Structures are given as structure tokens and as C-alpha cells.
Amino acid sequence: MKNKITIIGGGLAGWAAASIFSENGYLVDIFDKKNQNFGSQQISPNGWSALTNLIDIKKIKPFFNPFNKILIKYMDINQRVELLCNFNVDNEDINYGSIERESIIKLLKDNALKNNSIKIYNSYIKHIIPDNGTNKIIDDNENIFESKSIVGADSINGISRKFVIGSGGKSKNKKVFRGISFNNSSYQLARNSLQLIITFNGHFVIYPTIINKKNATNYIFVPTDDRFFPPIIHNKILSYLIPNDIEWKMTFSATISEQNNVIHKNGVFLIGDAGTSMPPHTAQAGNQILEDAVFIKKSLQEKNNFNQMVNMFIKQRYLKNNIIAKKSAVVGKILSAQKLIGTLRNLSLKSYGNDFVESILNPIWTSNVNK
Ligand SMILES: Cc1cc2nc3c(=O)[nH]c(=O)nc-3n(C[C@H](O)[C@H](O)[C@H](O)COP(=O)(O)OP(=O)(O)OC[C@H]3O[C@@H](n4cnc5c(N)ncnc54)[C@H](O)[C@@H]3O)c2cc1C
């Protein structure tokens, strides 16, 4: 008889899990109702190599928009812009760029569905109830299912995280604004680079991408305080890069204070945002989900069962996610510094910016973060 798992959540983590479990002989039930993926995300070299381990590289390439540099700039209150650092990533061994979130999920989903062992339920799980060594799960159509092995991929405020961590697992979220523009001048100005523009009330992250086969520019604005909004751009030249008609969507991101060390209880194993609260500042949450998937895939290929795989993950992999989450929180603090510390940050970035970016990103990008 085939092994069976239940996946709660059909986002990046859920479909990455569906893909690897179905490839390794599992019957998979996956529950989700309204995945709302929006915009693009950065794929760093570690994420790229993980992704190419999960999906045929030829299928990924048409969706991938590479970058060859990271520019860090400072915009003062009068909207004068100064370049602080120009970090070159133009190396043919490095794949760094962006991919539309919906495309990456579709690629994983197509890969999973190839195996004919997936059952998709268009419903939300409302309850998980432990019952004699197994779990009863109840969806919002009042259907009751039974599952011994559950992958909780329903993000930071999902039912799985509540089940594993308890009510203390409720996450405090931070506001992050996200937007897309199909404006050609913005795309031309954003082309081939990731630009980080630090301002007096938050920072922009701007990069080119491909949305629905069209060239686009992806915008993120991380306010230093939840009361702040993306500033209106008065500087004429800058307004070509950051047009004032961007429709900003308010999204939420995890904060480090919500970190926990429990990701497994009664056969419910948390992955993705449900498992690790990762602040967005090193753009690693999604990349680490892909690395996690490769880890799980390898463990299943080595013929470990679900519980053995979970134990291996907790011992060998989870620490890394926590280290990156902490690093991301530190980067966020540096980027949001104001006044004297902000001035010192700018001076340091002008003198040692390349060394700084390299010291943060290199260990993560080469998957050597434990060092
Ligand atoms: C716009 C944006 C840009 C980002 N940029 C980057 C980046 O540049 N680099 C990077 O590495 N990461 C980035 N991230 C983070 C990364 O995309 C996320 O970490 C990743 O998508 C999380 O995947 P997930 O599957 O854990 O959660 P989600 O994608 O949130 O999926 C969770 C799913 O669970 C479903 N669900 C919730 N509750 C239930 C329930 N009770 N029953 C059934 N289903 C349920 C939801 O409908 C949802 O579909 C970005 C995130 C966003 C939002």
C-alpha cells in the first residue's frame, strides 16, 4: 500500500511538498481554496540551484529575469538621490534574478500533477483533532478526513501553526507594500539590477521581472514604522523609475520576535512560512522553502519514512532557517536606521558597501550559512 500525506495550503511550500512527495511514491491530498499569489520574488543563487533540482531548468528559464548588480542608494528628505554601493553579480556561474510567484507555483504544480497521485480539495481546513495516533481534519464543507502525516503549509496565521505551537504561535506581522508597473520607462531604468533605495521613512526594493509574459517592474516598500506609506515622488527623474500611479497593495510579513523552535506535533510538520517566520530583508523566505524541499526530497530518496525525514529536518536543516531569519532581522534594522546611525550606515556603505553586501549574502547564497 502506498504512503499517504495530507498537505494543508497550496502556496509555494505546499506545491513544492506535493511535487517531491508525489515523485517519491506518496499519495497526496492537498487542501486550499484561494491562493492569492501576487507579484514576483527574487531567486538567489541558492534558490536557483534548489529550483533546478526540483524542476527541469529549461522550463524555468522563460520565466526568469536575471540581474547583474545590486545598487544601494539613499534618497534624502528633498528627494536627492545618492549612490552608496554598486555590487556586481555579473558572473556566469551565478543565477540571481526574479520570477513571478504564480509562475513558480505553476511549475511545481505541473511537476506534481505529472505523477497522477494528487487529489486537490478546494476547501479550507478548519480543525485538526488528534485521535488515537492519527488526526481527524475537518474542512469548511464539514467533511471529515483522517491523516497520520500532515504537512502544514498554510503560512503564518494558518491552522497548522496554531495546532503545533498553540495560541502563542499567533504571529505579529509587519506591513510591507508591494506593487507592479508595466510602464516601459520604469522597466528600462530597472533593467538588469536590483535597486535598494533607502529613504527617510522606509526603503524601496525595485527590480525587473516578467509577469504574464510581459516585462514589468516589481516594487516593494518596507516602512520603518507601520504608520508610514510609500512616499509620493516629486523628483521628476526618479518618478520614471518609481511612477506615482503604482497601485500599492498592503501585505504582511513576519517579524523575528515570533520565532519558535517547534515545527512538529502529532504528525503535523510545518514548512514554509508556517514553520519559519522569516523577515523579508534578505529575500530568503521563498528561496529557503526551495532549499527545504530539496532537503526533504533527498531524505525521501534515501528511503526515510515521514517521521524519520521530519527528525532529520529538525536536526540538520531547521537551524539554518533560524540563522537566516536572524540575519534578515539585522539587515532590516540596518536599513531602517535613521539620524546618526543612518548617517553612519550611509558612510560605511560608501566605503565598504561591497564587503558588507558580500559578507551578508555570500554565506546564504552559497548555502554555507552555518559558518
Ligand atoms: C509579494 C511577495 C514577494 C516576496 N518576495 C520574496 C523574495 O523576493 N524572495 C523570497 O525568497 N521570498 C519572497 N517572498 C516570500 C515567499 O514568497 C514566501 O515565503 C512564500 O510564498 C511562502 O509560501 P508558503 O507556501 O509558506 O505560504 P503562502 O504562499 O502564503 O501559502 C499559504 C497557502 O495556504 C492557504 N491556506 C491558509 N489557511 C488554510 C487552511 N486553513 N486550509 C487550507 N489552505 C489554507 C492559503 O490560501 C495559501 O494559499 C515574498 C512574498 C510575497 C507575499
CATH architecture of the largest domain: 3-Layer(bba) Sandwich
Number of self-contained structural domains: 2
By CATH's scheme, which homologous superfamily of the largest domain applies? FAD/NAD(P)-binding domain
- Average pLDDT works out at 93
Envelope shape: elongated
N- and C-termini, Cα separation: 43 Å
Task: Explain the layout of strands and helices.
Elements: E1 4-8, H1 12-23, E2 27-31, E3 40-43, H2 45-54, H3 57-60, E4 64-66, E5 69-75, E6 81-88, E7 97-100, H4 101-113, E8 118-121, E9 125-131, E10 134-139, E11 144-147, E12 150-152, H5 159-165, E13 173-181, H6 184-190, E14 193-199, E15 202-211, E16 214-223, H7 238-241, E17 249-254, E18 264-265, E19 268-270, H8 285-301, H9 306-316, H10 318-336, H11 339-365
Parallel strand pairs: 1-2, 1-12, 2-8, 5-14, 12-19
Antiparallel strand pairs: 3-7, 4-7, 5-6, 9-10, 10-11, 13-16, 13-17, 14-15, 15-16, 18-19
Helix pairs in contact: 1-4, 1-8, 2-8, 8-9, 10-11
The structure holds flavin-adenine dinucleotide (FAD).
Flavin-adenine dinucleotide binds next to helix 1, strand 3 and helix 8.
